[in-house]
Each structure stands twice: as C-alpha cells, then as structure tokens.
Write a structure and sequence with these properties.
Layout (H helix, E strand, L loop, with lengths): L1 H25 L1 H4 L2 H20 L2 E3 L3 E3 L1 H20 L2 H25 L16 H31 L7 H28 L3 H29 L11 H9 L1 H10 L11 H17 L4 E8 L2 H8 L1 H16 L7 E6 L2 E7 L3 H17 L11 E8 L6 H17 L5 E2 L1 H4 L14
Parallel strand pairs: 6-7
Antiparallel strand pairs: 1-2, 3-5, 3-6, 4-5
Helix pairs in contact: 1-4, 1-8, 3-4, 3-5, 3-6, 4-5, 4-6, 4-8, 5-6, 5-9, 6-7, 6-9, 7-8, 12-13, 13-14
Length: 434
C-alpha cells in the first residue's frame, strides 16, 4: 500500500509543479518573465538536494527521487515550452543564471572555509562544508547537463517534425531521448560523489520515462487550450541551436532573415503556406472573422519590357511599400510570387477588407511606383471567412477567382464577396501545397 501511495504522491507532485509553473508562465505578459524564471531557479537547489539524498520505493523494488523524476523532468519540458512560445534566446536566460549561480556557490563555500571558527557560538551546530561542496559540484554538473539537454531537446523537437506531426508526441519523443541521456550523465556524478547504487539508475530511468509521458501530455494540453498560437519556430541545425542559446543577436538575425522575400522584405510564399495556414486555422477555430486579399500589379510585363528588370524590381519594391502602408499592426503581408501579393486580415469584416482594398488601390496609383513616372495600378480580389472558407486554400481560391473578375472588368479595382456573385474563372489556381 505504501508503494502505491508513493506513486500517487509523485503524480500529485508532478501535477502541482507543472500547474503552478504553467500559471506563472501564462501570466508573464502581465507580471514579467522574472517571476517564472525565479521560481524555476529556486527549485534547482531542492531538485539537486533531493536527487542526492531523498529516494522512495515504488513497485518493482526500484528507488527513485522526486527531485530527479518530478522537478528536473518537469523543468526540461517547461524550458521546451518556453522555446515554443517565446524563443531559444529566452530559454538561455535561466540556464546561464543557474550555471553562474552554482559556480558562485562553490566559490563562496571555498571562502567560508577561511573563517577562523566554523560555528556561530557555543552549542551551535557545525556546518557540513563537505556536503555543501558535493552539492555545489553536483549543481554545476546538473546545470552543464541542462545546457546540453536544452540543445538536444530543441534540435530533436525540430528534426522530429518531419516524422511526427502531433506536437505532444514530438515533445514526448524528444524529452524521452534527452532524459535517457541525462539520467546516464547525472547518475555518473551521483555514483562518484554519493556512491549511489545502480538500482537508482534503472529506477530513475523508468520514472523519467513515465514523467516524460505525463509532462508531455500536460505541455500538449497547454499548447492546445491555454496558449494556442500561429507562431512556428524556425527549424534549426545543431550549430544554429548552439548559437541561438549563446548569441541573442545572431538568433534575432536568423529569425529576421528566415521566411523573408529578398526583394521586397515581405514574408515569402513559404511563410504564407505555414504561418498563413495556421493563422486562418486558428481564427476559424475560434469563430473569428478574417479576410484574405490578393493584389496583382496591372500590365507589369510592359514595365519590365520597356524599362528592364532592374527598374521592374524597383517598381515592385515601391508597390510593396504602398500596400504595406495600408496594413494594421496585426495584418500579415506576403509576396506570393512575381507581381502578386497576398494579405491576411485577422478580425476583419467584409466591409473592413473592402475599405483596405480601396486604400491600397489609391496608394499604388499615387505612390510613384512606375519607373517612367506614369500611373501604375493594381487589381485586387478578396475573400472573407468563414463564409468564403475556413482554410487558407479555400480562401485563396475564392480571392483568386475575384482577382480574375477584377482583371476582366477593366483592372484597377477590387472585387470582394458582394461584387463577385459567383463569378468563378475556369482553370484558376489553388494552393495545392497546403
């Protein structure tokens, strides 16, 4: 009965730990990330202390520690959660903080040894300096392993994306592999410093596998229901992951460069097919209105033929700037290809998208976009969800049909749901890649 009670207590501790930390992470935008990171760091000493001194028996005759099973396993999954909802540059903050703090602890203990008297007064207990030494080195080793673990779990999570589509299963697979590595590494230190028996290695590994499954399920629930987002972390190679966790400026440059059209600076078609698709799916799932607009520069081939491709590129940059000047803070702009641009408008009605489309037409006409000083124009087709579709492919097809109608009706105009009236063009495109 006591063995089953130990298992139940470990599960309860895991739920309590993740629940409290998830709440602190969720309110970081109001209270700041410091409260989350300080709480995470304050558990580090307890985690290492319990892993060195406190073990409980579970069915099968195994010994395991709540510090290693619950606190460390949960911390690793929480740091992956930080990466998924913030970025890797944020993840590095608690890692370096713990490593520097533990090094400082070992240094301070060395200084304490120089005191003439190690007891505060008559009858006061003597401090266990040797134990503090062992704990300090264990925490340094644990922080070093944590740095390696974070490199590995981010890399594995990204790489497993080609094999496992479901985020919770990717978290479970990545955390299971990394926790296996960590168990081997940390047990080596425990065995060397504390003479821990090998039964701790086997029991700790099985417990961490169970913890990986539980924490992955909790993290998946958080990502699905508590803080869903359209943000998609850019997959990184091992060298890039190291640089991300080491150089924030390099990370920001990578993020800025990834997914951008080199000519206009807008997001590219690949980002439309990932970020755009996720945005539409989220808005549709939450029952919010949204619009998709396709703008195509009229008779652009004549510009290239008359003035050359270099002048044509300058014209496209000017058009992109004119279109972007009409967007709101939450709107998304993409260069689809050639002289075509796609815009996404979260929380916009048909009338609001139509108003933006008219402003865009005026901006292109009056924006001095033509290299010869003539007036350049664009044609626009737009669709509004959920009425015109609940996914990116459906919205794109409807907007593309209306773009064709705008071209056929004389160009330099916008056609939306009220004006298209089913005017579908045979053989028009669809985003089959989505």
């Amino acid at each position: 009965m006591d063995l089953q009670l130990n298992v139940a207590m470990l599960v309860l501790e895991a739920l309590l730990y993740f629940g409290v930390m998830a709440v602190l992470f969720r309110v970081r935008h109001w209270l700041g990330s410091g409260i989350f990171f300080c709480t995470l760091g304050s558990m580090h000493f307890l985690e290492t202390y319990l892993a060195a001194t406190f073990y409980v028996s579970v069915p099968g005759g195994f010994l395991l520690s709540p510090g290693s099973t619950v606190l460390f396993s949960g911390k690793l999954v929480l740091l992956l959660l930080v990466y998924l909802r913030e970025n890797a540059a944020v993840v590095r903050q608690p890692i370096y903080g713990l490593l520097v703090g533990n090094l400082f602890l070992v240094g301070l203990v060395f200084v304490l040894r120089l005191h003439a008297a190690l007891n505060a007064g008559a009858g006061a207990p003597l401090p266990d300096i040797a134990f503090l030494d062992d704990m300090g080195w264990l925490m340094i080793w644990g922080s070093t392993l944590l740095y390696i673990d974070c490199l590995m779990i981010i890399l594995l999570y990204n790489r497993l994306g080609t094999l496992i589509a479901t985020p919770v299963l990717r978290i479970w697979a990545a955390s299971s592999l990394v926790l296996t590595f960590d168990q081997l590494g940390f047990f080596a230190a425990l065995h060397l410093l504390m003479d821990m028996p090998y039964s701790v290695l086997a029991g700790g590994w099985m417990a961490k596998m169970a913890a990986a499954a539980l924490f992955s399920a909790l993290a998946g629930a958080y990502l699905r229901w508590i803080e869903p987002t359209t943000k998609v972390p850019t997959p990184l190679r091992l060298g890039e992951v190291f640089e991300v966790l080491t150089y924030q400026q390099r990370y920001l440059a990578l993020v800025e460069q990834a997914g951008r059209d080199s000519l206009t600076g807008l997001q590219n078609r690949t980002r439309l097919e990932t970020l755009g698709a996720d945005t539409v799916a989220l808005l549709s799932r939450e029952g919010r209105s949204f619009g998709l607009l396709i703008a195509d520069v009229d008779r652009f081939k004549q510009v290239n033929d008359s003035y050359g491709h270099t002048a044509g590129d300058e014209a496209l940059r000017a058009v992109a700037g004119a279109l972007q000047s009409c967007l709101g803070e939450k709107d998304l702009a993409f260069r689809y290809g050639g002289e075509e641009f796609v815009m996404l408008f979260p929380d916009h009605t048909a009338d609001e998208v139509a108003a933006v489309a008219e402003r865009m037409l005026r901006a292109v006409r009056t924006g001095n976009c033509h290299p010869g000083g003539e007036q350049l124009s664009a044609s626009i087709g737009f669709a509004v969800g959920p009425g015109d579709g609940t996914n990116l492919n459906g919205l794109f097809q409807r907007a593309d049909e209306r773009l064709y109608e705008a071209k056929r009706s004389g160009r330099d105009r916008a056609v939306g749901p009220r004006r298209a009236q089913g005017a579908a063009a045979p053989g028009r495109r669809s985003m089959q890649t989505l």
